Amino acid sequence: MRIVKKPAQTEDIIKKSRFISMLLPCDSEQQAKQQLAHYSQHYSDASHLVYAYRIQSNKGLICRFHDAGEPSGTAGKPVFQHLEGKRLINVLLIVIRYFGGIKLGAGGLTRAYGHSAKKVIEQADIEDFIAMCEMCFTLDYKQRQNLEYQLKQLNGQIIEQQFGENISVRIRLPEDNVPALKALFGNDYS
């Protein structure tokens, strides 16, 4: 699986119709819906606002696409297929169309929306998805420096820490590195 690091945008004119494509990182379906509402309002004068998204949740992969009034299967599905083909998750792809007066036909629409999706994906900064895990530890003060060193080695970070008789820390690190950290610090985690 792969993710988009930051938003990307492209624009094309295809047979006088203007296509604006946006690829946006999203962590939840709720965030995708909020962004859709924002862009629907911002581009309220557009002829069509087509979208597709793939969001990884703790219930599995949530996939949606919408043709936005274009003939069924000619807009949302080709956009979605590019997300799926590139194995992108936690992403929303929007293609906004301003109709230019020339009808494209079903095949032309499919090609235009597919081309717009492909072009914005090619422009995007994409990286491999790394599943992260959060854990809590209680440590002696003398273990803190070792924890910080080990987290650097394991691509983790301290998110929160509370100082008292001991140190309580909440950390975040790649799921694949959890066994190595547990082996170093035993069962002092939750």
Describe the structure.
This protein is α+β, with helices and mostly antiparallel strands. The chain has 2 domains: 2-128, Ribosomal Protein S5, domain 2 (2-Layer Sandwich), CATH 3.30.230.30; 132-185, Alpha-Beta Plaits (2-Layer Sandwich). 32% of the residues lie in helices and 37% in strands. It contains 5 helices and 10 strands, in the order βββαββαβαββαββα. It is elongated and about 70 Å long. The model has no long low-confidence stretch (mean pLDDT 91).
Topology summary:
Blueprint: E1 2-4, E2 8-14, E3 17-25, H1 29-42, E4 48-57, E5 60-66, H2 76-85, E6 91-98, H3 105-123, E7 126-128, E8 132-139, H4 144-153, E9 157-163, E10 167-174, H5 178-185
Antiparallel strand pairs: 1-7, 2-3, 3-6, 4-5, 4-6, 8-10, 9-10
Helix pairs in contact: 2-3
Ranges where pLDDT stays below 50 over 5 or more residues in a row are: none
**Alpha-carbon distance between the termini?**
28 Å
Question: Which word captures the global form?
Answer: elongated
- What's the overall average pLDDT, rounded? 91
Helicity range of the residues?
Answer: 25-40%
The main sheet comes to: 5 strands, antiparallel
Helix-and-strand structural type: alpha+beta
Strand order of the largest sheet: 2-3-6-4-5
CATH superfamily of the largest domain: Impact, N-terminal domain
The CATH architecture of the largest domain can be given as: 2-Layer Sandwich
Order of helices and strands: EEEHEEHEHEEHEEH
Question: How large is the share of residues in beta strands?
Answer: 35-45%
The oligomeric state of the chains shown is: single chain
Figure out the total of helices: 5
Give the tally of β-strands: 10
